[in-house]
Amino acid sequence: MGYVIIGAVIGAFVAAVFAIAKKDAKERDEMISKLSNEEKERIMKAEPQFVEENAWVQEAYVAKIVEKGSKSDVRLLWYNTTMNNNENETITIADASISKADKEAHDVKVGDFVKLYIAPEKTVGSVKIVFD
């Protein structure tokens, strides 16, 4: 009986992961469909600039901003040429959070291009928007 419960829990977890991935893929496809050809080309031409081992800065497109108190959650589109996963060589999503003060000081809005810091091996601060 214990194996049945464990199997059911694992099955539910796997189903939830697939559901979230499918939802993100659908949202990504909708965001990309709204881009102009020039915006798509600019995203795809953005070259990663390595700043540390396994960490880089790359230009990304602000596709969505959700206000959450003193912070803003920002959904970005960027072109993955560095991480060898199922989204390699595609425009993909990254999520970052910035303070409302930074958002206002740098006038960040949907449709802007920003510098995105990506460090997939870090657990804290692995994806963030950086300002010069």
Describe the structure.
The protein has 132 residues and is of the alpha+beta class. The chain has 2 domains: 1-34; 37-130, OB fold (Dihydrolipoamide Acetyltransferase, E2P), CATH 2.40.50. 36% of the residues lie in helices and 36% in strands. The chain has 3 helices and 6 strands. The chain has helices at residues 2-33, 37-45, 100-105; strands at 49-52, 55-68, 71-80, 90-99, 113-118, 127-130. Strands 1, 2, 3, 4, 5 and 6 form a 6-stranded antiparallel β-sheet that branches. Strand 2 (55-68) and strand 3 form a beta hairpin. It is globular.
Instruction: State Rg.
Output: 17 Å
Q: Report the β-strand fraction as a percent range.
A: 35-45%
The pLDDT mean sits at: 85
What's the order of the H and E elements?
HHEEEEHEE
CATH topology (level 3) name of the largest domain: OB fold (Dihydrolipoamide Acetyltransferase, E2P)
Question: Uncertain segments of ≥5 residues (pLDDT<50)?
Answer: none
Number of helices: 3
Largest sheet features: 6 strands, antiparallel
Number of domains: 2
Helix content: 25-40%
Derived from helix and strand composition plus strand pairing, the structural class reads alpha+beta
Highest-level CATH class of the largest domain: Mainly Beta
**Mass-distribution shape:** globular
How far from one another are the termini? 58 Å
